[in-house]
Design goal:
The chain is of the alpha+beta class and 997 residues long. The protein is 68% helix and 10% strand. It contains 26 helices and 17 strands. The strands form four sheets. The chain has a six-stranded antiparallel beta sheet with strand order 2-1-4-5-8-9. Strands 10-14-15-3-16-17 form a six-stranded mixed beta sheet. The protein has a three-stranded antiparallel beta sheet with strand order 11-12-13. α25 links the parallel β14 and β15. α7 packs across α8, α7 packs antiparallel against α22 and α11 packs antiparallel against α18.
């Protein structure tokens, strides 16, 4: 993958459009990306990552892309990233536009446009670009497939973050595992571990569930067996559980079948005794029934004889009722006529109560004549009613004119009052605008002064901190020199003592008959002997190692002292000798003045709006004043015309109304009077007609009663039966006749008479004997059913238990196999000696490849001193597999990478990052990575090491690679000629590019 060109618009700190030509920068192999803090160096790398994957690295990705837009960009400028690159032999152009809130084309406010993406490929044959896709998903899949790595891998391999790899060197096995897992996508091995653990838990649960189910069936069989012997005392998972349960079940089934045979015999005997008792009970019940039937008939005959007189009276009453039915129509007619006459008289009385006393003695004809006269007078008031309505309209219109006049007077008075202070208001608004403009100018001047003052204050604080660090470093360097001197003297003393007594050390190795290593003699008559306090080779080597360690610490402390002194000199040169407190007070005062000026300047827009609003209000008040004056002139003429018409109408209506308040009131009086007279006339005629009909009904009733055989109409009415009384009397007569017939029939029966001659039977004793036999039969049946159900339930549960035992065999074998594999993959099995998980085992192999690839560059950077090696030893109580050590060729010792110094950690992490890039590249299918970026860390190197690191990076050009270094180190600007500088300003950052020439 090689980058050619990057176009950035309204992205991050870049407010406008910026262009980066990577072809020009890559011509020298190495190029430098530098700029002040916050200028946007990282934003250039973010733009590359966003163009490829549609997202920026790590925590900077938030808000679905809305936060990527530059705050310095113009409202109408859309954020866009365009990247031109070559990957897998194809030249592509990727354009991405994140979502943005653009101004609405109509009205105010903003609307959000969706994100857009374009992918084009250059066709060399046609010498033109051709479109490939505009789908986010398709573009992402195409780029990921071409590069062969995810966004996380790309950010670790192409955008090498040295801080992450420095932490990787010092991290424990778990932290290293997380990073390597993301880069090499070993999640599938973790999923295998998880799947095996889930299968183990599932199989274990199934085995325990099967045992639990078997034991539950055993408890059910014990409950079904009743008083059988107790179950075996076993729990789920215990060996021999299945055999014990099946044996117990066989014994329980045999006992249950024996009990079923006994219960069947008892039921047969009880059934025969029950049948005999039932037949005897039926015979006794029949005799008792006939005896009760004869006694009941005799009692009913006696009661009928006692009520014979009442029966004859009822028959006579029924005969008189039938005669009175002929008079019923005349009685009904007379009652209805009388009720109608009463209603007509009451209506006439109510109607006459509403009339004046002058009509008290008038008949129906007189009342009708008076009603016609009132109606004729009412018809003559229609024209007067229209005149009265017009007069009400005139009064309402006159009131409206008066209200309008009062409203216009208020408008004129309010406008005159407001316009009187217009000049003063306009002058005050203009003064506010001038004051805000002056404050804005003052705020800009103070803002220019803030940044130099802030840099000087920061330098002064660094100067104070470096001064304290210099004293500490000087004391530590002096102590290290003293310790190194003491260690050297101790080593030389021990070496001298060993040389003085070397003869005794050599004599210790002499053997009779073997030549001496010094003189060659084969006889050794008086070999030298070791004295107390003899110094051997091991003691001398320990003293030498202690001296070398102390001398290395001294060199490190002196180097650190030199770095701190250089930093102190640089900070002092920038800050001067002014005390930090005074610079802080000056900065606070400058901030206070700037804040006050900005606060005052913030009111400029509001002051301008206030002036514009006041001018609009002035125009509105003047227009309202003119309109009110015009309306006042037109109202005067209209008021005079209304007054003249009102006087004429009032004179006309005074004659028509009379003593009423209005024409409507007079009309209502006449309407009520005419209606009441008409009602009274109708009621009088109805009462006279009802009296004639009542007289005719009385004559017809007297004739009908005489013909029916009654002396008076009242006697006929008393004899008449209504429907309810007639039905009740007829029911009593029919019931008496029916009872008499039934009693005679029963007394005439031969078997009933014969039973009555016998001795009364004891029915209760026969019933008790039958009930006893029935209970015995029911108990026998229940016992047999219970025994049969017990046998069936035991057979069913035994069969289910046997089937469960057969199913459990393969399941337990599967559980043993899965549990062994899960323990081995999880590192908890005794067979896994190093307690390594499956994922850790795969990552250990990858880490071993990375360490081998990193060592090739680390040896060049460290002049052959350091070598990275992988270690699978366990650290503490943790698991093994992801250890990383460094071998020091100067001492021959292997030690942890956390013991490296700051500069050594940097070039070791750089070598590790480059090695990891090679391994991940091979893992991704061998995609060429022709453009790499390396983050900060070069400031911790001395000049010689820096040259060696730059030589290693420069060697990457052997495969036509280019490396971009992101750094603040000033010396790199002299060493690396191709540079991309990010310059920040008040309107946003800009890019300045310089090629190798």
């Amino acid at each position: 993958m090689r980058l050619h060109r990057l176009d950035i618009t309204a992205f991050g700190p870049f407010g406008g459009e910026q262009h980066v030509d990577f072809d020009e920068l890559s011509a020298a192999g190495l190029f430098l990306l530098h700029g002040p803090t916050g200028a946007g160096k990282t934003s250039v790398l973010d733009a590359v990552c966003y163009a490829l994957y549609g997202a920026v690295p790590g925590a900077r990705q938030s808000g679905q892309g809305l936060t990527l837009r530059s705050d310095h960009a113009a409202p109408g400028t859309r954020t866009a990233i365009r990247l031109e690159l070559t990957v897998a032999g194809r030249r592509l152009e990727i354009t991405r536009q994140p979502p943005w809130a653009r101004p609405k084309k109509r009205g105010s406010g903003t609307t959000t446009d969706k994100a857009q993406s374009w992918l084009r490929e250059y066709d060399a044959a046609a010498a033109a670009w051709k479109d490939l896709s505009r789908s986010h998903q398709e573009i992402g899949e195409e780029i990921t497939q071409l590069l062969g790595m995810s966004r996380e891998q790309f950010c670790q391999v192409v955008l090498l973050p040295q801080g992450d790899f420095a932490r990787f060197l010092r991290a424990d096995a778990e932290a290293r595992g997380k990073l390597l897992g993301r880069l090499f996508d070993t999640q599938r091995f973790a999923e295998v571990e998880k799947r095996l653990a889930e299968r183990r838990r599932t199989a274990e649960a199934q085995v325990r569930a099967a045992d639990t189910e078997l034991l539950a069936d055993a408890h059910r069989m014990h409950q079904a067996a009743g008083d059988a012997e107790a179950l075996p005392d076993l729990a789920p998972g215990d060996p021999g559980l299945a055999e014990a349960v099946l044996t117990w079940a066989a014994v329980a089934r045999s006992t249950a079948r024996e009990r079923l045979t006994v219960a069947h015999s008892a039921r047969t005997a009880a059934a025969a005794a029950h049948d005999s008792a039932e037949r005897e009970l039926d015979d006794v019940r029949e005799v008792a029934r006939l005896q009760r039937r004869f006694a009941d008939a005799r009692e009913r005959a006696a009661r009928l004889e006692e009520h014979a007189d009442a029966y004859r009276q009822a028959r006579a009453r029924m005969e008189r009722g039938r005669k009175a039915e002929a008079v019923a129509p005349a009685l009904d007619l007379r009652d209805s006529t009388e009720a109608e006459h009463r209603r007509a008289a009451a209506r006439e009385a109510r109607a006459r109560e509403l009339l004046p006393e002058t009509f008290a003695g008038a008949g129906a004809a007189g009342l009708a004549v008076a009603a016609r006269k009132a109606a004729e007078e009412l018809g003559g008031l229609e024209s007067a009613r229209r005149a009265e309505q017009r007069l009400a309209g005139l009064v309402a219109e006159r009131d409206t004119l008066d209200r309008q006049e009062r409203a216009d007077e208020d408008v004129l008075q309010d406008a005159a009052s407001w316009l009187a202070g217009w000049d003063a208001t306009r002058a005050a608004r203009q003064a506010d605008i001038e004051h805000a403009q002056d404050a804005a100018t003052r705020a800009e001047q103070l803002a220019v002064q803030r940044e130099p003052a802030r840099r000087r204050l920061d330098a002064a604080r660094r100067r104070d901190r470096f001064a304290r660090d210099t004293d500490d470093a000087q004391e530590q360097a002096l102590a290290s020199r003293e310790r190194a001197t003491e260690a050297r003297a101790h080593w030389l003393d021990l070496k001298e003592q060993r040389l003085n007594n070397i003869a005794a050390e050599l004599a210790a190795h002499l053997t009779d008959g073997a030549p001496c290593a010094v003189c060659g003699a084969t006889e050794h008559p008086a070999p030298a002997q070791k004295t107390d306090g003899h110094v051997d080779r091991e003691a001398e080597e320990r003293a030498l190692a202690a001296y070398q360690h102390a001398d290395g610490q001294r060199a490190e402390d002196e180097r650190r002292l030199g770095l701190v002194r250089e930093a102190l000199a640089a900070a002092t040169a920038e800050a001067g000798d002014t005390p930090t407190g005074q610079l802080a007070d000056d900065m606070d005062e400058l901030e206070r003045l700037h804040t006050e000026a900005r606060a005052a300047a913030s009111g400029l827009h509001a002051s301008r709006e206030a002036l514009a609003q006041a001018e609009r209000e002035h125009e509105r008040r003047v227009a309202a004043q003119r309109e009110a004056e015009v309306r006042a002139a037109s109202r005067a003429a209209r008021r005079d015309a209304l007054d003249r018409e009102r006087s004429a109408l009032e004179e006309e209506l005074a004659h028509v109304r009379g003593d009423a308040d209005s024409v409507a009131a007079r009309s209502a009086q006449l309407e009520r009077q005419a209606a009441r007279l008409s009602d009274a006339a109708d009621a009088a005629r109805g009462a006279e007609e009802a009296a004639q009909r009542l007289k005719a009904a009385d004559a017809r009733l007297a004739d009908a009663a005489f013909r029916a055989g009654f002396d008076t109409p009242q006697a006929a009415a008393a004899a008449l039966l209504d429907d309810t009384a007639h039905r009740e009397l007829q029911r009593r007569l029919d019931a008496w006749q029916h009872d008499e017939t039934a009693v005679r029939a029963v007394l005439a029966e031969a078997d009933t008479s014969a039973a009555a001659q016998q001795t009364p039977v004891d029915l209760r004793a026969a019933e008790r004997a039958a009930e006893t036999a029935a209970r015995r039969l029911q108990d026998a049946v229940s016992a047999q059913d219970a025994a049969a159900r017990r046998c069936a339930e035991l057979d069913r549960l035994s069969a289910r238990a046997a089937a469960g035992v057969r199913r459990l065999g393969p399941l337990r074998a599967e559980y043993d196999r899965v549990a062994r594999l899960a323990g081995l993959a999880a590192g908890t099995s005794a067979d896994n000696e190093r307690k390594m998980r499956l994922e850790s085992y795969v990552l250990a192999a990858r880490l071993e490849q990375v360490a081998a690839a990193a060592t090739a560059r680390l040896q060049r950077m460290s002049s052959g001193r350091y070598t990275l090696v992988h270690s699978d030893d366990r650290s503490g109580r943790g698991r093994s597999g992801l250890g990383l050590h460094v071998v020091d060729a100067w001492t021959g010792r292997e030690r942890d990478t956390a013991t490296l110094s700051g500069g050594e950690t940097f070039f070791a992490s750089l070598a590790l990052a480059l090695g990891l890039a090679d391994v991940v590249t091979d893992e991704a299918g061998g995609v060429r990575l022709d453009t790499l970026f390396i983050d900060e860390g070069f400031g911790s190197l001395d000049d010689q090491t820096l040259d060696e690191v730059l030589d290693v990076l420069d060697s990457l050009r052997e495969r036509d690679r280019s490396v971009g270094i992101v750094s603040h180190v000033a010396d790199l600007r002299r060493r690396i000629h191709a540079q991309l500088e990010i310059v920040k300003g008040r309107t946003g950052s800009v890019v300045r590019q310089r090629g190798a020439g």
